[in-house]
Design a protein that fits this description.
Layout lengths: L24 E2 L7 H6 L17 H7 L21 E2 L16 E3 L6 E3 L1
Parallel strand pairs: 1-2
Antiparallel strand pairs: 3-4
């Protein structure tokens, strides 16, 4: 797995633009590859080894905070276009919504923020 990706030219980012030679880097970590998932599914991940193993795409898309489409293979497309990356490096296929709470305490010069 490569940690770097190519820079995508702005004119080629949109999925509607044809780019037959587009070859994104797979960023899937070893523990989420199909062979590893067949042995053990990490507690933070779903068992679906590929997007074709996901049975509830319509529900996931309907509940998404940021709308996204699936490509011709049934794989989720990044809503902002090509990124130079492919694969899964989060717990589930599709959107993985998260929130980071921030607590602010004090006033004036004593005001502090905590994450």
């Amino acid at each position: 797995m490569s940690e770097t990706t190519e820079t995508i030219p702005a004119a080629l980012r949109d999925w509607s633009v044809s780019w037959p030679t587009y070859s994104p880097v797979d960023v899937t970590p070893p523990e989420l590859l199909p062979a590893a998932l067949a042995q053990e599914v990490p507690g933070w991940a779903e068992a679906a080894a590929t997007p074709t193993d996901v049975q509830d795409w319509a529900e996931r898309q309907a509940a998404a905070l940021v709308p996204y489409e699936l490509d011709g293979r049934g794989w989720p497309l990044h809503p902002q276009g090509r990124t130079g990356r492919t694969g899964r490096n989060l717990g589930k296929w599709g959107e993985n919504a998260a929130a980071d709470p921030i607590v602010v305490a004090g006033a004036g010069d004593q005001r502090r923020g905590y994450c």
